[in-house]
Design a protein that fits this description.
The chain is 80% helix and 7% strand. It is mostly helical. A hairpin with a 2-residue loop joins strand 1 and strand 2. Pfam families: TraD_N. It comes from Candidatus Regiella insecticola 5.15. This is F sex factor protein N terminal.
Length: 142
């Protein structure tokens, strides 16, 4: 152990350089992990749920979130929903209380959770593999 200021300065620079390189690599890996998570989640969701159910489920959650703001409106906004080729015109109260749109909303929520879990497992395993690969490569080079 040395308390020489020159040794402390050089040791601090080397330690900071290693930390900065480590954070730089982790930043790149984290970016690709987050992007992969989002893409895999959306792809899995679109594979598992039909477009009609997805759109109607999104309308259900939109109506559910905006309904408290529109409770006292004089002229409620009407939204058009597709139901197997038919166009249905609903207000936010009707969307929330309708059995089909409630089903679509709950289905979308359930499938989003399942898709997120699937993509989380895939991204975690891919990141673990990549970290092992980087570690093995670094050990060979040093």
């Amino acid at each position: 152990m040395s308390l020489n200021p020159r040794d402390l300065t050089q040791g601090g620079q080397v330690a900071f350089m290693r930390l900065r390189m480590f954070l730089q690599i982790n930043n790149i890996i984290s970016y690709y992990m987050i992007m992969s998570f989002m893409v895999i989640t959306l792809v899995t969701l679109f594979i598992r749920v039909s477009t009609q159910n997805s759109i109607n489920g999104l309308m259900y959650w939109y109506a559910w979130s905006i309904n408290p703001l529109l409770k006292n409106s004089v002229n409620p906004t009407r939204y058009t929903l597709n139901y197997y080729g038919k166009k249905l015109s609903y207000t936010t109260d009707q969307i929330i209380n309708d059995a089909y749109t409630s089903y679509c909303g709950q289905l979308l929520k359930q499938e989003l959770i399942i898709s997120a879990l699937i993509s989380m497992i895939v991204v975690f395993l891919a990141a673990l593999f990549f970290y092992c690969y980087l570690g093995r490569t670094g050990r060979k080079q040093s």
